[in-house]
Amino acid sequence: MKILSIIGARPQFIKCASLSRAIRKEHTEILVHTGQHYDPEMSDIFFKELQIPEPDYNLGVGSSTHGEQTGKMLIEIEKILLNEKPDLVLVYGDTNSTLAGALAASKLLIKVAHVEAGLRSFDRTMPEEINRVLTDHISDLLFCPTETAVLNLKKEGIATGVYNVGDVMLDALEYNIKITEEKTTVLDDLSLSPKEYLVATVHRASNTDNFKNLSSIVNSFCDVDISIVFPVHPRTEKYLKQYGLWDKLCEKVKVIPPLGYLEMLKLMVHSRKILTDSGGVQKEAYMLGVPCITMRENTEWVETVDDGGNMLVGADYEKIMDGILNFEGTKIKGDVFGTGNACVEISKILNKICSTFY
Ligand code: UD1
Ligand code: UDP
């Protein structure tokens, strides 16, 4: 089968690294990078570290408003689809690149497979929620990471082509965890000792594009005694500087540029707790058994909260402080995300359906 995969943002590179390896054993893959993320530390580093094949196309769309960015992607992806005529388009997660890929393909009557289907935060103010709902409703194959995701789809009337394959990020984590121990020196580089620091990431629009929320997060980070390592997403850096919070943060917290996946994994494994608003980082904290304090009001990864490994604190100063000082999590590492075999499962299903679709 000729599969055209569309990626464009950091977490999609990480997911694609594992799945691409599996599907290229059986199928031909054309890789399209939309260029949504483009800084070397948001894009190139993942291709190099994780040995992701060089994209066949890079659309170079860059940053803009949602409509303009998604629109530019649609125009360019359509041209490629008309030219390449793939049997299937594969999209990942919930970014604007995901929606543009799925929409362009479905309008051309090309089958769409959605990896990480069925996630819902039930918060339509999140751009990602719009991307998820729309992508799921125009996908032919829906690869869900959890049973909750399968149920979410069922409630929306989507039951055909739905498979619970487990989470591809668990595959990525298991594949890379040994490599990271051998190859990275990030703890020494930052003069950190295991379990004597916290890791923080922030990039969600509801936190970055809001002075009150971002100030509250910064104030809490500055008011604790333990070291916090904060690899800063470019969106967050922009707003921290715009709001005059950057210098305040730098005095107290270890503010560093975004890390490669191997360095990030090593930092997380040895951290005492993780503070984040990232979807992927919440899951990784759970998979690694590190207590996670999530600076959001809701999460699509409900299992991490139900199992006691994750605490939702929003952007509330008191709640963040309470999490940092008191939340220890239950260190449950259940099997809600599968067995680390999601990529092989997806590849097997693609082989099977190949004969029914075509
Ligand atoms: C996007 C996704 C989000 C995902 C995140 C992963 C959407 C709507 N959002 O959010 O779901 O969790 O990626 O990290 O698709 N920027 C740079 N250099 C880059 C990339 C971005 O400077 O390489 C800056 C630009 O100022 C840009 C801003 O970051 O305007 C936001 O980037 P964008 O890709 O629009 O959204 P993210 O916040 O990264
Ligand atoms: N990540 C990384 N470097 C960083 C921050 C995060 O490699 O500096 C990884 C993280 O380990 C996870 C993924 O990026 O695998 C999550 O991406 P992000 O938080 O940007 O997006 P989300 O998962 O929220 O969509």
Walk me through the structure.
The protein is about 50% helix and about 15% strand. By secondary structure, the protein is α/β, with parallel strands linked by helices. The chain has 2 domains: about 1-165 and about 340-355, Glycogen Phosphorylase B (Rossmann fold); about 175-325, Glycogen Phosphorylase B (Rossmann fold), CATH 3.40.50. The protein starts with a strand and ends with a helix. The structure holds uridine-diphosphate-N-acetylglucosamine and uridine-5'-diphosphate (UDP). Uridine-diphosphate-N-acetylglucosamine binds near residues 10, 42, 96, 127 and 235.
Quick description:
By secondary structure, the chain is α/β, with parallel strands linked by helices.
- Radius of gyration equals 20 Å
What's the shape? globular
For the record, the CATH architecture of the largest domain stands as 3-Layer(aba) Sandwich
* Largest beta sheet: strand ordering: 3-2-1-4-5-6-7
Helix content: 40-55%
Enumerate the spans where pLDDT stays under 50 for 5 or more consecutive residues.
none
Termini distance?
9 Å
Helix-strand pattern, N to C?
A: EHEHEHEHEHEHEHHEHHEHHEHEHEHEHH
Q: What summary fits the major beta sheet? A: 7 strands, parallel
Question: What structural category do the secondary elements indicate?
Answer: alpha/beta
Give the names of the bound compounds: uridine-diphosphate-N-acetylglucosamine, uridine-5'-diphosphate
Number of domains: 2
Tell me the CATH superfamily of the largest domain.
Glycogen Phosphorylase B
| Range of strand content | 15-25%
* The CATH C-level class name of the largest domain: Alpha Beta
Number of strands: 13
